[in-house]
């Protein structure tokens, strides 16, 4: 998942003193970030935003944050939007994060998926806010291990994120061995290949996982329904009304009785909560009749 940075390294003395982030410029940036990515920046993040964006000002030769805001508001600023979002966010992810989700996926969701495949029905799973792909490859490892030959059947995992730099890492599928070791050893040895100090996603994993750029608050081009959606530790940085809107949209993209996996500090609230019933810690099943 791509999440809002909680802290920033203290800049070297004199590194940012020449740039003053005024309240007006901060409000403008906060509005742009919210409208672009749905991220809600609290006023307490002003110093963090200033520290994170100084490099972007220098990259464009901006003399002030007001100049940078003016750049973002021009048509040529569209290309900078991605850099802005990347600068103020950080990616916190690892393999097999929140293991109870993958235990539920293996024991409850995968048998349903197998039934669908045996009935010659397509199976789709979505890792929404996939960061650098570790979540998607974890899902794929559990799935392939539980259903022999699944890589050659009609099953695909869509891995999406707003950060194209993270997507490139996912597509490469290369991770430090120490990080990959968070997977159960039997899955790591079976589905990844050793290459020096790295572990590389094997052909079967690459065959079932597809990476795509997607902004969750923009239009979704997908028309298919998903047996499971993982969107973990992403929505905590959205306002509650946007969270509720996303939950409703997720429901509409799930098959009947499909499963939604959220992060450890995320909960359903408001009318959208009626679309799902709890099935464990931050595991939810689409209720009968929900759209």
What attributes does this structure have?
single chain; 291 residues; alpha/beta; Chemotaxis Receptor Methyltransferase Cher, domain 1; Rossmann fold; 2 domains; seven-stranded mixed sheet; three-stranded antiparallel sheet; 11 helices; 42% helix; globular; disordered N terminus
Order of helices and strands: EHHHHEHEHEHEHHEEHEEHEEE
Instruction: Extract low-pLDDT stretches.
Output: 3-16
Number of discrete domains = 2
Biggest pleated-sheet summary: 7 strands, mixed
Number of strands: 12
Brief overview, please?
This protein is an alpha/beta fold and 291 residues long. It has helices at residues 23-37, 46-60, 65-72, 78-88, 99-118, 134-146, 164-172, 177-180, 185-191, 203-208, 240-252, and strands at residues 2-4, 89-91, 123-128, 155-161, 174-176, 192-195, 198-201, 209-213, 226-231, 254-262, 276-280, 283-286.
Description of the structure:
There is one protein chain. With 291 residues, this protein is α/β, with parallel strands linked by helices. It has two domains: 2-89, Chemotaxis receptor methyltransferase CheR, N-terminal domain (Chemotaxis Receptor Methyltransferase Cher, domain 1); 99-286, 3-Layer(aba) Sandwich (Rossmann fold). It contains eleven helices and twelve strands. The chain has a seven-stranded mixed beta sheet. A three-stranded antiparallel beta sheet has the order 5-7-6. α1 runs parallel beside α3 (65-72), α2 (46-60) crosses α4 and α5 (99-118) packs across α6 (134-146). It starts with a strand and ends in a 5-residue tail after the last strand.
